[in-house]
Recover the amino acids of this structure.
């Protein structure tokens, strides 16, 4: 029974098994499917993860590659926008920082470049401007650097020295200039060094080709900001023409001066010869005295003229005064005699200071002063007009004042300032040198001359001359003391 049960159990179990083994395929298939599904899921997840992770690296790297390409093309505004983590993030950040810094530097360089360009344009403009000025001024300008190379040579320099700047620009001044010009520069710079000066100016004569030139040369040392020697600048002006015209003008003036001063004594000579003639025919008794007087005056005037001409020839200028104690009243009296016989029948009045002694004057020159004043007065007055001469000692001022008045036409206020200027005249045949010479002589005597209106009409010339009665009246020693006075005054 037990065996039967056992067989029964076995059979049941077998049947179960058989039933179960029938289910075996679907169950295992079920398992396989689940497993496959899980495997596939894992694989897909892994692939997705792989792709996901790869995207995080490749996109930034692609953008990096694109960035590098753009940078090489010069586009520095490129910025990597891709999000990244870890080292790639650091790389992206570094790349972005690098491009930003590159961009900033490029902008800075661009600004600097623009500034430089502007500065260059400005410098160019200034250089052009300076060159235009240099080329348009009349003075020659040459600059030499510390090695002696010519760095500037303007148009005027070309013209004056008859050289072409392209031939000498950049060459040494030894070779560029001929021997004489070179020697002049050497001489001037040597003198400048010897005198420890930074500049020197001198008038020099230079032969250029066929012409002799007179140049005013100025040599100036050029120094840099630190005071270091940088060369020389030489400026020269051609004075040849100017000096020639000045010489002509000066000679003209001298000639006019001589003519004027010769013309003035001619009047007293003429008046005295007329007087002699008249006296000779009219009154024979008086004749001897008049003869002596007139001959004396004529001789004196001729002597004066001779002396003047000699002085002019010697110095070609107005002679300097030679003051010596002289009777001023005698000089005036001598001239008065001549004019007392004038055609215009002048009324001449004099009021002399009886205390006036010898005055330190050059008699010839003071005579010329009065002759000029008489000439002007006789020109200004009508027939029968009056001339009044007075002298007065101004004790305190140590002066003698001479007033020379006429009742002639007078001088209008506008002309008064110009009166003593050379060549100012209102007369048809006047030279206008008379009062200029008078003024010169008075000034040379340390005196002064002024003009004012006479009352009721006419003109008064007021002349002050230095006069010190005490010294002049002390007998024998007067001449020596006078010399002291005049030499201390001059
Ligand atoms: N006493 C005077 N009365 C009026 N005008 C005068 C008198 N003295 C000079 N003048 C004026 O001053 C001017 C200048 O005098 P100045 O003696 O220098 O030259 P000038 O007399 O004209 O020429 P020159 O002396 O060569 O004959 C005269 O032309 C005249 O107009
Ligand atoms: Mg005159």
């Amino acid at each position: 029974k037990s065996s039967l049960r056992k067989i029964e159990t076995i059979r049941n179990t077998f049947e179960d098994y058989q039933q179960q083994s029938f289910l075996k395929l679907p169950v295992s298939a079920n398992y396989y499917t689940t497993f496959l599904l899980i495997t596939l899921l894992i694989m897909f997840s892994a692939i997705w993860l792989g792709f996901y992770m790869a995207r995080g690296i490749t996109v930034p790297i692609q953008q990096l590659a694109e960035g590098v390409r753009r940078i090489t093309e010069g586009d520095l505004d490129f910025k990597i926008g891709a999000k990244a983590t870890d080292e790639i993030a650091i790389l992206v950040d570094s790349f972005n920082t690098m491009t930003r810094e590159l961009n900033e530097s490029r902008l800075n360089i661009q600004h600097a470049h623009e500034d430089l360009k502007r500065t260059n344009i400005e410098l160019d403009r200034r250089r052009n401007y300076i060159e235009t000025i240099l080329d348009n001024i009349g003075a020659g300008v040459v600059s030499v650097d510390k090695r002696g190379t010519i760095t500037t040579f303007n148009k005027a320099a070309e013209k004056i020295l008859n050289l072409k700047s392209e031939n000498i620009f950049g060459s040494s001044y030894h070779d560029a200039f001929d021997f004489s010009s070179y020697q002049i520069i050497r001489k001037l710079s040597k003198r400048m060094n010897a005198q420890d000066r930074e500049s020197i100016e001198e008038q020099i004569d230079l032969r250029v080709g066929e012409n002799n030139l007179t140049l005013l040369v100025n040599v100036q040392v050029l120094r840099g900001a630190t005071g270091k020697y940088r060369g020389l600048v030489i400026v020269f002006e051609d004075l040849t023409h100017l000096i020639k015209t000045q010489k002509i003008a000066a000679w003209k003036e001298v000639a006019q001066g001589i003519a004027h001063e010769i013309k003035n004594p001619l009047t007293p000579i003429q008046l005295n010869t007329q007087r002699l003639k008249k006296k000779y025919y009219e009154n024979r008794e008086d004749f001897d005295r008049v003869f002596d007087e007139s001959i004396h005056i004529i001789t004196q005037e001729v002597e004066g003229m001779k002396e003047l001409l000699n002085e002019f020839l010697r110095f070609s200028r107005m002679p300097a005064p030679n003051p010596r104690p002289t009777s001023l009243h005698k000089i005036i009296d001598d001239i008065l005699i001549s004019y007392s016989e004038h055609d215009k029948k002048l009324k001449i009045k004099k009021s002399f200071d009886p205390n006036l002694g010898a005055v330190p004057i050059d008699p010839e020159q003071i005579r010329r002063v009065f002759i000029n004043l008489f000439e002007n007065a006789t020109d200004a007055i009508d027939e029968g007009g009056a001339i009044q001469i007075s002298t007065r000692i101004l004790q305190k001022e140590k002066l003698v004042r001479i007033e020379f008045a006429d009742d002639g036409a007078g001088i209008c206020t506008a002309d008064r300032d110009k009166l003593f200027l050379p060549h100012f005249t209102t007369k048809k045949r006047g030279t206008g040198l008379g009062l200029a010479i008078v003024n010169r002589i008075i000034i040379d005597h340390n005196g002064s001359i002024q003009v004012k209106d006479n009352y009721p009409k006419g003109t008064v010339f007021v002349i002050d001359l230095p006069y010190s009665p005490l010294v002049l009246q002390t007998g024998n020693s007067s001449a020596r003391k006078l010399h002291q006075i005049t030499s201390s005054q001059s």
User: Anything to note?
Assistant: Residues 245-489 form a domain with the Heat Shock Protein 90 fold (CATH 3.30.565.10).
